[in-house]
């Protein structure tokens, strides 16, 4: 689903003339990013491992008037990364924007996941992001600058159950975002990240919610743990990517924007909303009647 209003807050030509490559752009959040970059004027190259998925993505994008190509391969193979970039330049005329969206994840406890399972996620998320960024840099530099957007997560803000592998991988991605921004800013390349929270209609939500229930039921359950009261839409992430690639973000680099409705901060309140005033005033009244300062720690 796109934005409920179906409208973009931006002019539809803000990325006109730009060429973008989106890893993992054939499905999920990556597809919606490809679509929104395309609807705002960019030509897009989408990458992925499954040719049929890429074919339907390109068909869907083209049907909306977007210039799109699909390039098949695996972000874990550096020769695939190089080939994607060459094909993008040959067929679309260069590169201005790289979106590192390819990711792998599953729920697994730290004692159960094998070293190879841990490595697999690190290779897709972290090494894939580095390999693509490194290979794209000379092309972006050649154009006098450009944008890299790394799709991250909030798993590693604190810690997340059964996600040691993905948390480590995304923490490293956030670190890369800052290091590359520092080193490549001189050449006009801005590097930022987006950390999505629970996002409706994605493999992330269906795989990681850990329950076998309908999408609606999962969304409803997860929404209880989001301060703004609903799970995000893929549009929310994609339109943030459009912003980061636009001239409005020309002075923004090394940052990761959290787009999660406040979900990472969520925790049950110690005192329910309806009881907080009465409980607090009760504590105050008791301490004043005793003529002493309020206690440092309330049992409530
Ligand atoms: N629990 C524990 N370990 C798992 C696992 C699970 N659910 N799924 C895979 N692994 C382990 C495998 O056992 C294997 O380790 P081993 O060789 O020691 O047995 C390792 O991970 C690689 O698995 P394999 O299936 O060979 O990798 P793949 O390249 O075919 O698939 C994945 C990569 C596992 C990341 C797969 O989930 C994937 O392709 N994901 C892409 C889409 C996605 O998950 N998106 C979500 C974004 S949030």
UniProtKB/TrEMBL annotation:
EC number per UniProt: 1.3.1.124
GO CC terms of this entry: peroxisome
GO BP term, pick one: fatty acid catabolic process
Name of a matching Pfam family: adh_short_C2
Origin superkingdom: Eukaryota
Keyword Methyltransferase: no
Reactions catalysed, as given in the entry: a (2E,4Z)-dienoyl-CoA + NADPH + H(+) = a 4,5-saturated-(3E)-enoyl-CoA + NADP(+); a (2E,4E)-dienoyl-CoA + NADPH + H(+) = a 4,5-saturated-(3E)-enoyl-CoA + NADP(+)
SUPFAM superfamilies in the cross-refs: NAD(P)-binding Rossmann-fold domains
Keyword set includes NADP: yes
Gene3D superfamilies: NAD(P)-binding Rossmann-like Domain
Keywords: NADP, Oxidoreductase
MF GO annotations: 2,4-dienoyl-CoA reductase (NADPH) activity
Domain Ketoreductase: 18-197
Stretch list, region Disordered: 276-300
InterPro entries the UniProt entry points to: DECR2-like, KR_dom, NAD(P)-bd_dom_sf, SDR_fam
PANTHER family: PEROXISOMAL 2,4-DIENOYL-COA REDUCTASE, PEROXISOMAL 2,4-DIENOYL-COA REDUCTASE [(3E)-ENOYL-COA-PRODUCING]
Name assigned to this protein: 2,4-dienoyl-CoA reductase [(3E)-enoyl-CoA-producing]
């Amino acid at each position: 689903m796109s934005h409920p209003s179906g409208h973009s807050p931006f002019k539809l030509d803000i990325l006109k003339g730009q060429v973008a490559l989106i890893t993992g752009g054939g499905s999920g959040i990556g597809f919606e990013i490809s679509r929104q970059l395309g609807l705002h004027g960019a030509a897009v190259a989408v990458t992925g491992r499954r040719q049929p998925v890429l074919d339907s993505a390109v068909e869907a994008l083209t049907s909306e008037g977007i210039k799109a190509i699909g390039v098949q391969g695996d972000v874990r193979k550096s020769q695939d990364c190089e080939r994607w970039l060459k094909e993008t330049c040959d067929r679309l005329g260069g590169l201005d924007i790289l979106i590192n969206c390819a990711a792998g994840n599953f729920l697994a406890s730290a004692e159960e996941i094998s070293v190879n399972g841990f490595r697999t996620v690190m290779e897709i998320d972290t090494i894939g992001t580095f390999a693509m960024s490194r290979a794209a840099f000379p092309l972006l530099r050649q154009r006098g600058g450009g944008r890299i957007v790394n799709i991250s997560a909030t798993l590693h803000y604190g810690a997340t159950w059964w996600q040691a592998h993905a948390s480590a991988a995304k923490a490293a991605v956030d670190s890369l975002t800052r290091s590359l921004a520092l080193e490549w800013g001189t050449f006009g390349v801005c590097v930022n990240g987006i950390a999505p929270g629970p996002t409706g209609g994605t493999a992330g939500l269906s795989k990681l919610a850990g329950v076998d229930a309908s999408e609606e039921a999962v969304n409803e359950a997860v929404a209880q743990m989001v301060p703004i009261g609903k799970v995000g839409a893929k549009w929310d992430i994609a339109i943030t990517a459009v912003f980061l690639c636009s001239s409005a973000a020309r002075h923004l680099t090394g940052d990761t924007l959290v787009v999660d409705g406040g979900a990472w901060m969520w925790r049950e309140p110690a005192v329910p909303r309806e009881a907080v005033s009465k409980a607090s005033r009760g504590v105050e009244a008791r301490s004043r009647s005793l003529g002493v300062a309020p206690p440092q720690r309330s049992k409530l």
